[in-house]
């Protein structure tokens, strides 16, 4: 599978009808089972990612949000206030912006791609250096 930006297409011409269209639809459906964004990573291998999050009483909307926003994977309920999101995706680094939206709730983040985990925690350290670091700050 190859992705092309629509704004990069200069010209379109009518061609022959694909005789094996259903075969390619099948390829797409199988491929899409692990695609988070548009990247398949450099080697087309799957990254396994697990994010454990904690939500307080009355914050059931967090579970609803996880269910609504996840593109693939599943949610495991650990206890009344803790759940784990688990997925196998082609390029887990594409998930970083979404993962960051759960900062403050993430109890544990594990990924077979150490780049993803390292980037996530380095970003937290940079944010802390820019905006935090004061032990007396409101939490």
What does this structure look like?
The chain contains four helices and four strands. With 139 residues, it is of the alpha+beta class. The chain has a four-stranded antiparallel β-sheet. It has a domain at 39-131: Alpha-Beta Plaits (2-Layer Sandwich). It starts with 20 loop residues before the first helix and ends in an 8-residue tail after the last helix. A hairpin with a 2-residue loop joins strand 2 (74-79) and strand 3 (82-89).
Keywords:
alpha+beta, Alpha-Beta Plaits, four-stranded antiparallel β-sheet, 4 helices
How much is the radius of gyration in Å?
Answer: 19 Å
Q: Which structural category fits the helices and strands? A: alpha+beta
Task: Tell me the total number of β-strands.
Answer: 4
**Biggest β-sheet: strands ordered side by side in the sheet:** 2-3-1-4
CATH topology of the domain at 39-131: Alpha-Beta Plaits
- Please state the second-level CATH architecture of the domain at 39-131: 2-Layer Sandwich
Tell me the name of the CATH class of the domain at 39-131.
Alpha Beta
SSE pattern, N- to C-terminal: HEHEEHEH
Report the β-strand fraction as a percent range: 15-25%
**Which spans of ≥5 residues are poorly predicted at pLDDT below 50?**
none
Identify the overall geometry.
elongated
Helix percentage = 25-40%
Provide the residue-averaged pLDDT.
86
Terminal Cα separation, in Å?
Answer: 46 Å
The largest β sheet comes out as: 4 strands, antiparallel
Count up the helices. 4
């Amino acid at each position: 599978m190859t992705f092309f930006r629509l704004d990069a297409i200069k010209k379109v011409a009518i061609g022959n009808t694909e005789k094996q269209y259903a075969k390619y639809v099948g390829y797409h459906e199988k491929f899409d089972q692990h695609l988070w964004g548009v990247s398949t990573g450099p080697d087309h291998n799957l990254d396994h990612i697990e994010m454990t999050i904690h939500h307080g009483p009355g914050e059931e909307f967090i579970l609803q949000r996880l269910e609504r926003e996840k593109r693939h994977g599943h949610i495991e309920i650990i206890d009344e206030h803790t759940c784990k999101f688990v997925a196998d995706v082609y390029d887990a680094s594409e998930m970083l912006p979404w993962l960051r939206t759960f900062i403050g709730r993430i109890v544990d983040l594990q990924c077979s791609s150490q780049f993803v985990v390292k980037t996530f925690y380095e970003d937290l350290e940079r944010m802390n250096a820019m905006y935090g670091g004061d032990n007396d700050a409101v939490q």
